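We modelled the chain as a single entity of 110 amino acids. Its sequence is:
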Amino acid sequence: LAGCASAGNKQITEVGTVAKIEEGKSTKADVKALVGEPTKVNFRDDNTEVWEYVYKRGQMRPATVIPVIGWFAGGMDTTGSTLTILFNNDGIVQKVGSGRITGGGGSLSD
């Protein structure tokens, strides 16, 4: 009965795809062609852009469906990835960073 759900851009979990984004060479168009639209775009004081991508996958804990016990031992375990790209004023990739997301939540014991 356990379920799972995902949200965001799964392409950022593919190492070969992310490796094609080259610092000092790739453009915004190149990045969009590889991993699509960003989850979030920020503009810094120096007018450079930061694109952020997120992918999360959650797996419901089996105990969640057990009455009363699910309140304490249930919930969801979450894993995922992030990709952050800084573009210079010419729209060229300046820096690429990636990370991992792990966590749980949803029960009284979390």
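As a brief sanity check on the tokenised model: The radius of gyration is 18 Å. Residues 17 and 34 are 7 Å apart (CA to CA).
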